[in-house]
Amino acid sequence: MSDTKIKSKKGTTAKELNVKPVYLESGLEVNPVYTAADIENSGIRNEMPGEYPFTRGIHPTMYRNKPFTIRQYAGFASPEETNERFQFLIKNGQSGLNVAFDLPTQCGLDSDDPRAFGEVGRVGMTVDTLKDFEIAFKNIDLDKITVSLTINGTAIILIAMYVAMAEKAGYDISKLRGTAQNDILKEFIGRGTWIFPVDKSVKLVVDTIEYCAEHVPKYSPVSVCGYHIRESGANPIQEMAYAFCIAKAYTDGALSRGIDIDDFASRLSFNFDIYGNLFEQIAKFRGGRRLWAKIIREEYHAKKDSSCWLRMIAGGGGGGLTKEQPENNIVRSAYYALISALSGTQTMALCSYDEAYTIPTEHSAEISLRTMQIMIHEMGICDTVDPLGGSYYVEAMTDLFEKKIKEEMKTVEKWDGIINAVATGKIQESVSRQAYEREMGMQTGKVDKVGVNIFTREEEAKDVEFHPYNKKAADDQISKLKKIKSERNNEKVKVCLAAIKKDAQDNKNLMPSIIAAVKEYCTVGEIVDAMKAVYGEFKEPIFF
Predict the structure, then answer these.
(1) Cα–Cα distance measured from residue 227 to residue 236, given in angstroms and rounded to the nearest whole number
(2) Which one, of 65, 69, 74, 80, lies nearest residue 98 by Cα?
C-alpha cells in the first residue's frame, strides 16, 4: 500500500498493511497508522485547555504557572519517626504530604489489641489517638503543606482527628485544605481493609462529604481510587469505569441528603494508576476526564465548571515494578512520571524503585522525588499545555476510551449498580480472574516484562536494604497509649462513645460526635467498637 493511500484512509489496519496486530491491555487494537480522518468527529480541534469538557486539562495554562503538586507516600513506625520523614521530604522540595498508616490503624485496632501484634507501625504510621496526629504534624504549616490521608475503613475517625488537630492548633477549618482517600467501595474490591457492611460503609463516606460541605468546604473528603482496582487486576478501561461508578454512588448519597451538586462535586478527587503502554495510559485519562465532565454536567446538572473537573493524583503503580533487576524500576518510574504529566494530573506521586519488595528507603524516595523535579526543571514538560493534543493516534484513542469506559459503566448498571456489585462480589470476581490471567500471561511469556521474562540474566545474590521492623517503636507506642488512657477523663470518654452509638442508632451523621470523641482522646479502636455495636461487620462473599 502506498503512502498516498495510507494518508487518505481512516483506521489503516494491521491486516491491510500485512503486519502483526498489536493489542493493548484493554483489548483494543492499535492501528499501524492514524490520520486526520480518524478524529474528524472528535470535536477536539475546537477545544481549548480549561474549557468544558476538559479533554486538554482542567486549567487554561495547566503547569505553565504552577507545576503539579509533588506528594510522595510516606509514614512508618511511630508518629515521631513519621514527622522526621515529613520534615526530610519538605526540606527536599516536596509540596504536599501523603500519609501511610499501619494495618491496625486501617482496620480499626488499637496498638495494644492482641490482633495488632507484630503489625504496629510495620507498613505505615500508627494512630491510636489524637495525640499521634499532634506529634506527626508538629511544626508543619497546614496552610502551606496540604496533607493527604491514605485511609479508608477508619477514614471518618482520622478526618475527625485532622479537623480536631487543626482547630486545636488555631487554624480556621473553613480554609483547611487536604484530602482523605476515604474510598471504602474500592477496599471491598481491592485491598480488604473494610470493617462495616457495604451500605453502612458508604453511609459513613457520605457523612464526611456532608460535614465537609457544611464546615470544611475546601477539604476533599474522598479520593476515589481506581488505582487499587487496577493494581488488583482490572484493565485500564475497568479502572476508570469502576471508579466513576463508585464516585456516582457517593454523589447519589450526598444528593439524597439534600446537598446541592455544586456544593461538593468540586471537592471529589480521584487517585489513578499508571503502568503499561504509554499511549494507552494517556488516552484513558484524557477520555476519562472528558466523560466525567459530561456525567456531572449532563446527568447531575452541575452549573459550575469546577464541579465537572476530574481532579486527580496519578503516579507510578507498584504493579508495574519488579523485584527482578530493581534498578530498571527507576527507568519505569521516569516514564510513569512522563505519562502522568502528559495526562494532565494535578498531583503526582511515584513509587520508589525498591517498593516492589520493601518500604522505600530515604535514598530511593529521594530518587523518585528528583525524577519529578528533573522533569519539571530540565525536561520542559511544563512549558506548554497538552503537548500531545491533536495527535491523530492520541485523539483517536481518547475518543475510543471515552466510549469504552461508558460501555463498561453500563455493564455495572446491569449488575444493579456498583454497591450491589460489590456486596455480591461480582466486581471482585471479575477483577480477581483478570489478575490471574495476567499473571499467567507473564509466566508463559504472552505478556513481556523486561528483566522478568525477557532480557533476563543470571545475577549474583546481593544485599537488599530492607526497612526493619521497629519493635521498640511499637513497644513505646503501646506505653504511650496506656499513659493517655490513664490520664484522660475516662468519664467523658464513656459519654462520647455512648453518643456515637446513639447517633448510629438514630442514623445521624457521625462526624460531630466522633470529633467530640477524639478531642477527649478516645482511641480509634474504641470508636470502631462503638460503631460495630450498631452496624455489625462485613462478611465477605465466598465463591466456589
Answers:
(1) 10
(2) 74
